[in-house]
Design brief:
heterodimer, A: 359 residues, alpha/beta, globular, B: 101 residues, mainly beta, 5-stranded mixed beta sheet, 3-stranded mixed beta sheet, 7% helix
Chain lengths: 359, 101
């Protein structure tokens, strides 16, 4: 049995900042990630972030991942376990971890769950054919490994991810035949959408996919126009010549460990699915278990980093660690989260957040 | 297909690795996943589903969805999207749930 003060499950943007914050306050930290690298989904993001400097404005995700990982690896009171899968949480507070085909048990005083999210899929005939991918899957192939999944892409979904990945496909020399979006308006920020529109990619709103074509792999897609009641309009079907269909239809929180631990969970569509109730310290209904990042609700990576900082500080502070600047740091992080969630773009998140408070 | 030129990223060549796919020798690079190496070689079919025998390929690429399971060095249900390529690997299309030996 390993003992530690704070165990952090998931080494993406939220987990990395949680580890740094807790460790800088003095806590002993173990950071656990099932990948053989740290950074989560940041490692495939070549676009620049925006926001304030603390939110890493103007930095690319790939650079943020490298900086944060390097910092974490150099903090002496953080032990990093990669290629380590947390298999379960037991009610005596023990985490069961598999690493190098061995089982390790870890008994932390506090746990931060920052397991992130995974891509949703969409129902249509032949959606199981090779050539149908989550948008993030294609982003990884292209941006991490330098491999093209095909020559011609249909992007389904015009939120930020769909539009950003479309631009990244163009940068890699892959044709994006069209971006379709079922809603009357795109969800993406115009700063991202303008790039692909200038590159000649049509964004077809009020359109959805009818089916994928191909016997063994995708070789086409049929799309259709929708009316104001989201019903297909007869006679508007169009066959597109594509060999890749990218689904960018949202992420869902990877909350299995929280369910297993008995945290009170609630289904909040604005936050992507089943998320835990939490208090203002990001502590769940199970004392000592904190959450941060996409597992607590799907948002941008900047919010994940801020939530990670908050969860890390709160977890360490609950163990008695403090500093001259702790209260100031907490206020600063909360102000930044508030800023990220302000305005019309944050409306959906704010509505979601109203539904997850532990009373 | 590999990306030759990119405005932001530089894909450094690492050492080449030989492996076999369904008995055919292929080459990939150190550091990439089996799935990436297969895609570079134009292979997108990784599994045949258990009941309807339909071809299945990569979907999530982060080890989550179980769509890309293949037989690697005789061991079934390897998530080739997160498994790194190693010299001499024997990779085979998986039929259904695979058989443990």
């Amino acid at each position: 049995m390993k003992y530690t003060e704070v165990a952090i499950v998931g080494g993406g943007p939220a987990g990395l900042t949680a580890a740094m914050s807790a460790a800088k306050l003095g806590a002993e930290v173990i950071l656990i990630d099932r990948n053989d690298y740290l950074g989560g989904q940041l490692i495939k993001q070549t676009h620049r972030f925006f926001g304030s400097k603390q939110q890493r404005a103007s930095e690319r995700g790939i650079d943020i991942a490298r900086e944060l990982s390097d910092q974490v690896m150099n903090i002496p009171n953080i032990q990093v376990m990669t290629e380590a899968t947390v298999l379960g949480y037991y009610e005596d507070g023990v985490l069961l971890v598999e690493q190098n085909k061995k089982i390790i048990t870890i008994h932390p005083k506090r746990i931060v769950i920052s397991t992130g999210g995974a891509e949703k899929t969409l129902l249509f005939p032949n959606n199981d054919l090779p050539g149908v991918y989550g948008a993030g899957a294609v982003q990884t192939l292209v941006n991490v490994y330098g491999v093209k999944p095909g020559k011609k892409v249909l992007m389904v979904g015009a939120g930020n991810i769909g539009v950003i990945v479309s631009y990244q496909l163009l940068q890699a020399g892959i044709e994006v035949v069209a971006i379709i979006e079922a809603a009357p308006k795109i969800g993406a920020y115009w700063v991202h959408a303008a790039k692909v529109v200038r590159a000649g990619v049509p964004i077809l709103t009020r359109h959805t996919i009818v089916k994928a074509h191909g016997e063994r792999e995708v070789n086409g897609a049929t799309v259709v126009r929708l009316d104001e009641n989201w019903q297909p309009i007869t006679g508007t079907q169009k066959k597109l010549d594509v060999d890749v269909i990218c689904l960018s239809v949202g992420l869902t929180p990877l909350s299995e460990l929280l369910w297993q631990a008995g945290c009170k969970m609630v289904y909040v569509p604005e936050l992507g699915g089943n998320v835990p109730l939490r208090n203002e310290h990001l502590e769940t209904s199970v004392p000592g278990i904190y959450v941060a990042g996409d597992v607590a609700g799907i948002e941008e990576a900047s919010a994940a980093m801020m939530e990670g900082s908050l969860a890390g500080l709160e977890a360490a502070a609950s163990l008695g660690y403090t500093s001259e600047t702790l209260q100031e740091n907490l206020r600063d992080v909360l102000e930044q989260l508030k800023g990220l969630r302000s305005g019309s773009v944050g409306e959906k998140i704010r509505k979601g957040m109203e539904q997850v408070s532990l009373g | 297909m590999r990306i030759e030129k990119h405005p932001i990223l530089e894909f450094k060549s690492s050492s080449k690795i030989k492996f076999t796919y369904n008995g055919n020798e292929l080459e990939g690079y150190e550091g990439e996943t089996i799935a990436a190496a297969l895609h570079a070689a134009g292979v997108r079919i990784m599994r045949e589903s258990g009941h309807l025998h339909r071809p299945r390929g990569l979907f999530c690429n982060i080890g989550n969805c179980s769509s890309c399971l293949m037989v690697v060095n005789g061991e079934p249900n390897v998530r080739v999207c997160v498994e790194r390529l190693r010299e001499g690997m024997v990779v085979e299309t998986q039929k259904g749930k695979g058989e443990l030996k």
